[in-house]
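Run log // design_07
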């Protein structure tokens, strides 16, 4: 935020937020000075369930800070306009509900965008809940990462039951933190909203007073990870009853998801003639391991996608296509069943016989083509599908039945790792190895909430070998050894099969010339199609006939140079070499750089014909496609194209006339810390990120868009009394600075 005149803090004009004044912010925040809080899961709406008045009788003042990232893949796919219009829509809806907002949008180091939202409001509890659980959706996901919540009110009784949205299937849960005026007196209770894997729960946190004065502080996180909060919410209440329901009042109930499940019955697996072994593990089956590295779903309730994709990766490996990394995000963003980060069901049909949103071919997508973003994401492209299933089935008639142990073992032995449901309760939070023998079925109302993969078993120990999707830092390297029959493990087990198809490479020509391949197979001239094993690396060389010149490739190859390298996959690859008569019309492509704040970077074409740097202009034949990438140097940020391209992703130019393209690079901004002393007060200021240690180092430069967190540490006998100016930081907590320009922050220390 920038100060204009004496009192106004205004939103950047292109983001259309409501203007806040310093006075109004002080009035709204009141005693909230110096808080570090946020909203996470069900965050923020407070309903008096009992013992302290109704929704209408409790006044609420609140402040929310949220960082809303847009991944590079979504920016590239949607375009810059759509990537920014979504947050503008969010701001408009919040403004319509009387919420004051401020938004700063900046490019981030990962190549995408980060919208930093500050929202403040006041009213009654009902209005507050409608805003945070209604008007803020879908852009603001309250369960989408580490979040902090602080409640500030006069404590009426000694105990409090606080109900929040949560999602046990992600490994995240709410817990009281150090310094809170209340701690957990009993384990939390959970109520699952509906059938399905990855669906949210209502978590009842049962708190009691500690004798400490101050506010109630909670965090929504995983216990085995340390990550900064992406959302912070402070709620000030006129009264605090003995029970508060902060969950989503419109959360679904019943079995909506069950109606969307596809049931399929295939060839039933039977035991081998010699019987099953007492122990079996597909991670190391006689040196024939077929299980990829453990993945991490993060805070998104997408375990259903990780289960679906994970067993297909193993089925491919079992057929000899080793260690493939397929896209879970494709299933999340492109399914037509409403499955998303709030849950879903087994989704093999999209790899088998069902088209996804905006798709023309059925099958699985590479992770590199649709990378995981821990969000619902977008689906605007028709993605390449290198693999598809040849069959799949549930072991039992429906997805909500539990097979016998023998049926599960037969399926694992015959088909490889299989999906399975399980009820993941509070006990999973602290699991670090050994036999898990706690039955947590009650957490899920008699069903399951989480999809995992079973890769083997051990009869002497009476356990399944379970592969989770919470990263390798959880459990035993990402695995659990769970006792047979516990927590409905095995519900809805399913298997898949794939089959190898010899890939075909077909080459075509436009104009006169020849194409040769290495290894041999293509000699086009005469032989323009050949079969190659999947994974074969092939080099193609185009040679123009007399009176012709090679112009460009299309299809599985691209570029304006006569050499092309590609790797075969299952299916057919098509390549065309285009030859033009000498003297044919050519057009100039000119590339330039706009440097803001001395920003630096380079621009390159995918085929190497542009390297700017040094080569910033080249001629191309008519309709040549040219693909340009911009890469910022250290501490600079690429902020977008202008001219023949826009946005921040890949720049694709078709040379149907002479064109020019410019890339804008923004250089680093300086953050300066000034220490102010009253009554000989003293202290230190440091940054969570490297750079500031003041002390000695009181300034540092940061890439544009970097979020820097400053912490003030008073010396013995001194007190830290606040940050300034208010347009940058305020209060006595940590100071979070967005480096969208040069900033100066003052820390005031007061002596005795």
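design_07 sequence
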């Amino acid at each position: 935020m920038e100060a204009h005149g004496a009192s106004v803090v205004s939103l950047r004009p292109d983001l259309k937020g409501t203007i806040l004044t310093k006075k109004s912010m002080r009035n709204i925040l009141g005693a909230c000075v110096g808080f570090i809080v946020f909203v996470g899961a069900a965050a923020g709406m407070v309903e008096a369930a009992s013992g302290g008045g109704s929704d209408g009788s409790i006044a609420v003042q609140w402040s929310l800070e949220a960082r809303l990232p847009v991944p590079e893949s979504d920016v590239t796919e949607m375009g810059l306009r759509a990537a920014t219009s979504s947050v503008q829509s969010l701001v408009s809806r919040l403004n319509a509900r009387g919420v004051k907002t401020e938004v700063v949008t900046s490019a981030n180091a990962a190549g995408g965008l980060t919208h930093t939202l500050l929202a403040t409001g006041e009213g009654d509890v009902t209005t507050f809940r409608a805003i945070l659980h209604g008007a803020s959706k879908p852009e603001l996901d309250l369960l989408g990462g580490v979040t902090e919540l602080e409640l500030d009110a006069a404590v009426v009784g000694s105990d409090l039951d606080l109900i929040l949205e949560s999602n046990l299937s992600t490994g995240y849960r709410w817990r009281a933190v150090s310094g809170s005026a209340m701690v957990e007196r009993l384990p939390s209770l959970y109520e699952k909203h509906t059938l399905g894997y990855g669906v949210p729960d209502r978590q009842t946190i049962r708190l009691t007073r500690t004798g400490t004065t101050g506010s109630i502080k909670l965090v929504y996180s995983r216990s085995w990870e340390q990550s900064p909060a992406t959302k912070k919410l402070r709620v000030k209440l006129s009264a605090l009853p003995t029970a508060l329901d902060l969950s989503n009042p419109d959360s679904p109930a019943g079995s909506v998801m069950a109606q969307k499940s596809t049931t399929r019955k295939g060839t039933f697996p039977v035991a081998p003639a010699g019987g099953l072994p007492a122990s079996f593990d597909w991670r190391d089956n006689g040196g024939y391991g077929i299980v990829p590295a453990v993945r991490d779903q993060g805070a998104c309730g997408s375990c259903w996608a990780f289960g679906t994709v994970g067993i297909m990766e193993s089925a491919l490996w079992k057929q000899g296509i080793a260690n493939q990394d397929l896209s879970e995000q494709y299933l999340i963003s492109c399914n037509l069943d409403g499955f998303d980060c709030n849950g879903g069901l087994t989704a093999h049909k999209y790899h088998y016989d069902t088209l996804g949103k905006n798709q023309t071919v059925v099958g699985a997508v590479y992770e590199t083509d649709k990378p995981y973003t821990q969000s619902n994401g977008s689906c605007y492209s028709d993605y390449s599908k290198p693999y598809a299933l040849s069959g799949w089935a549930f072991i039992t008639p429906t997805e909500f039945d539990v097979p016998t142990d023998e049926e599960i073992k037969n399926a694992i032995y015959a088909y490889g790792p299989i999906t399975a449901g399980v009820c993941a309760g509070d006990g999973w939070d602290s699991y670090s190895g050994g036999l898990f023998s706690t039955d947590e079925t009650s957490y899920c109302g008699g069903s399951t909430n989480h999809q995992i993969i079973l890769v083997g078993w051990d009869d002497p120990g009476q356990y399944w070998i379970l592969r989770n999707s919470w990263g390798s830092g959880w459990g035993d390297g990402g695995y659990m050894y769970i006792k047979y029959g516990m927590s409905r493990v095995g519900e809805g087990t399913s298997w898949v099969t794939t089959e190898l198809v010899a890939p075909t490479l077909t080459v075509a020509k436009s104009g006169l010339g020849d194409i040769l391949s290495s290894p041999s197979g293509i000699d086009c001239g005469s032989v323009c199609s050949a079969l190659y094993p999947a994974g074969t690396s092939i080099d193609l060389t185009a040679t123009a006939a007399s009176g012709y010149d090679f112009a460009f490739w299309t299809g599985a190859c691209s570029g304006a140079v006569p050499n092309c390298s590609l790797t075969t996959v299952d299916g057919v690859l098509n390549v065309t070499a285009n030859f033009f008569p000498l003297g044919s019309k050519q057009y100039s492509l000119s590339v330039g750089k706009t440097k803001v704040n001395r920003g630096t970077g380079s621009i390159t074409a995918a085929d190497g014909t542009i390297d700017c740097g040094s080569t910033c202009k080249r001629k191309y034949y008519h309709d040549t496609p040219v693909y340009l990438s911009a890469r910022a140097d250290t501490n600079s940020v690429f902020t977008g194209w202008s001219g023949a391209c826009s946005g921040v992703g890949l720049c694709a130019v078709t040379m149907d006339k002479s064109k020019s393209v410019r890339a804008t690079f923004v250089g680093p901004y300086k953050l300066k810390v000034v220490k102010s002393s009253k009554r000989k007060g003293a202290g230190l200021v440091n940054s969570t990120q490297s750079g500031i240690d003041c002390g000695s180092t009181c300034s540092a430069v940061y890439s544009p868009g970097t979020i820097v967190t400053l912490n003030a540490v008073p010396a013995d006998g001194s007190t830290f009394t606040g940050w300034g100016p208010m347009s940058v930081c305020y209060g006595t907590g940590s100071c979070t600075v967005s480096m969208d320009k040069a900033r100066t922050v003052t820390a005031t220390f007061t002596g005795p």
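The two ends are 33 Å apart (CA to CA).
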